[in-house]
Amino acid sequence: MAEPPKKRQRRHLVLVRTPKHPLEKDPYHLAARLAAQQPEQNDADLELHHLAILETQFCNQDKLRSAVEQVHAAAAADSDPPTWDGVVMTSARSVEAYCAAQRDLAHSADRPLPAPSIPFFVVGHPTCTALQRAPCPPCQEQVFGAEESGTGERLAEYIVQHFHAAQSGEPTSSMKKRPRLLYLTGDKNRDTIPRRLAAGNIDFDPLQVYSTSPSPAFATNLDAVLAGVEATAAGGTEEDEGNDEQVWFALFSPSGAAECLAEMRKRRLIPPSPTSTPSHPTTNGSHPFPSESDSPSPTPSNPDYSHLAARIRFAAIGPVTEQFLHEQALPVHAVAEKPEPSALLEAVLRATT
């Protein structure tokens, strides 16, 4: 006798990031649609929620335009030796700032910008893809690190090995010249890349090209998502009773995670910060249910969602965000093998089975 078909589970996946517009072109939206079209590969239905957490502002635009101009000028046949031996980009935001500077230069130039001739080092495929869509991108053979790196630490190691290998075949006189890189950053960066480059005898010029700040609409939008989760559960059938829907929060950076967790704590979804009240994940991988004594009291502007706390799950885009969650004494139920949409969806779906 054939076994009855396995009941499919509904899971809410909250992507704590600003989606691309139009939404139909957002890579995570597309990955979720693709997963939905392959129901035989998983037994969970994902209901996707987009929750913008940070707003981006470009900065030091004059300095960046000057730097981009030097990068492109180095490609001219009659140019002086290049100022830098490569450009380092660790996020799509830094690429967006670079592209904005390219567009400004293109509008003011009397001829098209020449394609860059120096290498670009990027973290992961999303950054690489964004760079290839630039108004004047480097040729594909000049973009390195996308396959080999998923974190800043791995990219830094790759860069060091890249230049050491290049120098090993050069004359001794050429090896005395230390490589110098242009390193485009945001306002919230760890010192992982600078420390490794310095240890590898590689000089670099950091240039902050963007900053991020919390979205003023995040708290309101979070409440809307949670209210929607409640409404979905209330509309379930009798056979859904006792089968609470998991609510997954996918986090993409320590800075974004910090803002999100602060609002979740105000709503008693997770325990207080370990800096104020010690709290540790339980042995079964769930986080302890916040009690009346250890959670901030909800206010009229911060509704109490403690009844959803047991259903919360966390997914991290990579090891840096995973480490931050552990430092917050929170369990991490899924980690993407690479910082890519398909890898994140696969990690979440594996963890739901």
Ordered list of secondary-structure elements with their pairings:
Elements lengths: L8 E8 L10 H10 L7 E7 L3 E5 L2 H13 L12 E4 L2 H17 L11 E3 L1 H9 L10 E2 L7 H17 L3 H4 L4 E6 L6 H8 L3 E6 L1 E5 L3 H17 L11 E6 L2 H13 L45 E5 L2 H9 L6 E2 L5 H12 L1
Parallel strand pairs: 1-2, 1-10, 4-5, 4-7, 5-6, 7-8, 10-11, 11-12
Antiparallel strand pairs: 3-9
Quick take:
37% of the residues lie in helices and 17% in strands.
Please characterize this protein's 3D structure.
By secondary structure, this protein is of the alpha/beta class. It folds into 2 domains: 9-53 and 215-236 and 244-271 and 305-351, Rossmann fold, CATH 3.40.50; 56-166 and 179-213, Rossmann fold (3-Layer(aba) Sandwich). Helices cover 37% and strands 17% of the residues. It contains 11 helices and 12 strands. The protein has helices spanning 27-36, 61-73, 92-108, 124-132, 152-168, 172-175, 192-199, 218-234, 254-266, 319-327, 341-352, and strands spanning 9-16, 44-50, 54-58, 86-89, 120-122, 143-144, 180-185, 203-208, 210-214, 246-251, 312-316, 334-335. The strands form 3 sheets. Strands 2-1-10-11-12 form a 5-stranded parallel beta sheet, with helices on both faces. It has a 5-stranded parallel beta sheet with strand order 6-5-4-7-8, sandwiched between helices. Helix 2 (61-73) packs across helix 3 and helix 5 (152-168) runs parallel beside helix 7. It starts with 8 loop residues before the first strand and ends with a helix. The model is unreliable at 237-242 and 277-298 (pLDDT under 50).
